[in-house]
Task: inverse folding
């Protein structure tokens, strides 16, 4: 049954990733991959909240499978982040490539830690 939860979360997360990425990127006239950045930070926030809720005992491990593994796993994308960073570097936009790495790591980790701390404050 656990694998069905993961699949159900992914069925929502994957198309949402595509639609969000396209909508965000269409609003920015730059080579920086704002769409991928946005979905990765949103996924980090959601995963931090879900993990904090599970740790505090207000959400079940099944919720973590559905939302954390399935939804967030399909919403976020390390492979696209890596590919876009590589393309930026190869196209001579080395500043944007480096900025993508630094800003994505800082924002993603900050979002995860911050939302996990928020969950602990709310439910811990």
Result:
């Amino acid at each position: 049954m656990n694998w069905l939860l993961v699949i159900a979360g992914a069925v929502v997360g994957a198309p949402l990733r595509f639609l969000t990425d396209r909508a965000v990127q269409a609003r920015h006239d730059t080579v920086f991959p704002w769409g991928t950045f946005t979905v990765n930070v949103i996924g980090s926030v959601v995963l931090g909240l879900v993990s904090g809720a599970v740790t505090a005992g207000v959400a079940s491990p099944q919720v973590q499978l559905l939302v954390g593994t399935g939804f967030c796993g399909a919403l976020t994308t390390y492979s696209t982040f890596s590919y876009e960073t590589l393309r930026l570097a190869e196209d001579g936009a080395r500043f944007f490539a480096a900025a993508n790495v630094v800003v994505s790591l800082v924002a993603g980790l900050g979002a995860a830690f911050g939302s996990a701390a928020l969950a602990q404050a709310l439910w811990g």
